[in-house]
Amino acid sequence: MNREQEYLVVLRLRSLYDKLLELRTQISEPQKIYCNSITKFSIMENFLRNLKTDGFDLKDLPLGHDLGHIIRDCRNAMLLGFDENLKKIIHPLDFIASFFGGTKHDSGLILFEKKDLTEKIFGFTPVSRYQEKNNFIRHAEAGALLIKKYLNLFGFKLNNIDTEYLMTFIEYSIAAHTNYMTSFEVDERIISPYKDEWEDGSPMWPVFMSRWCDRMDCIGPYFFIRHFCTLLSNKEDYTIINGERVFHKINMEEHMYPFALIEEQKKTIATMRTHVEMFLNSQNENTPYGKNDIQNSVMVSFREHQKTLGWEVIAMLDNPLPRKNVLDSYGLYSLLKSTSMSNRDLEIKILVDKFMKLPDDISIPWLSVFTKIQELIITSNFPMENKFLGISKKLFLK
Prior knowledge:
Layout: H1 3-24, H2 37-53, H3 67-81, H4 84-89, H5 92-104, H6 115-122, H7 139-151, H8 160-175, E1 184-186, E2 189-191, H9 205-215, H10 221-228, E3 235-241, E4 244-250, H11 252-255, H12 263-266, H13 272-281, H14 298-318, H15 329-340, H16 345-356, H17 360-379, H18 385-396
Antiparallel strand pairs: 1-2, 3-4
C-alpha cells in the first residue's frame, strides 16, 4: 500500500460519518435492542481468539499502551455499562458500540510489533505510537482496520440495519478516539479531525465513550506508571500550552525533574510532573475533552475520584519519604510488571536500571511516588472497580 492508498484509507474511515447519518434514521427503537453482558463477553473472547490465531499477542503491546492499559479500558467500559443514568439517554446500539470502541481503541498498536505480518494481512507498514505524526494511518486508524477484519465474525444477533450501524460505529469510534483538536498536514494534504457530533450538535456517544474509557486511565495512579514506561528511550512527546500541542524532545533525567516549574519554564522544559498535571487539570467540563461529561454519571464520579488520587500522588514529590521507606529496584520492577501485564521483562529491567542511576534528589521523590501508587492500587475503593478489573483480567489473560 503506497502513501496515496493510505490516504484513501483515511478518507474511507472519515466517510463512515455519512454512512452513520443515513443508517441512524433506520435503526430499531431502543426497547427492541437487547445485548447482555454474556453476549458481549462472548464476542470479546471470539475477537481475542481470532487475534491469537492470526499471530497477534496483546502481551506484545508497547509499554505504556500495554495489555494492562487494555484491561483497565475494559474495566472502564464495564463501569460505564452499568451506569443507569447513561442508559436512560444513550441508545442501546450506541452503548454496545461504546463497549467495543472503549476496549479495543488501542489494539492497532499491536500491528507495529508484527510488521511483516501486518504488511501481509493489511498491506501497509505500521509505525510506533511516537513516530506516527507524519503518517496517514496512525494507531487509531490501524485499530479500525484491525477491528474491521474481525467484525463479520462477531455474530451480533440483530437485524441487518442494526448490525451494519453497530459495526460501522465500532470502526468509526476507534478511528476517532484520539480526539485531535486541529487539522494537520501529511504529504501536503490537510487532515481534519474526525467529527464527533451529529449534524444537530448532539454527541456521537460511541466516540465520546471510547474516549472516556481512555481518559479514565489517564488521570489516576496508573497514568504515572504508563507515562514513566514510555521513557525507555529518548522520544518526542507533547505538552498542551494555550490549547496547542507543543512537542519536546524527552530524556529521562530532565524529564524526571520532580519540582514544580514556573509557567515560563513550561514552554521549553517538559517534565513528567507537568505532563501529568496537564492531564489532571484538563479533566473537567470546560475543556474539549470533557465537554460532554455527564453529571451524576460514573464517568464524572470516577474522574473526580481518580483526580483526587492523582493529586495525592503528586504531593509525594514535594514531601518525599525517607529512602528506607521507598521501593527498591526490585519493588519498582514488580510494580511495573504487574501493572503493565506485559511480556517485555527485559525492557522493564532496562528502564528500572536506567532510572535507579539518576541522582537521589530526582530518584527518591519519584520512588516515593511509586510507593504511594502501589498503596493506592491496593486500597482504591471506587464502587465495582476491583470487581470489574478482576473480570477484565480473567477475560484477557485466559
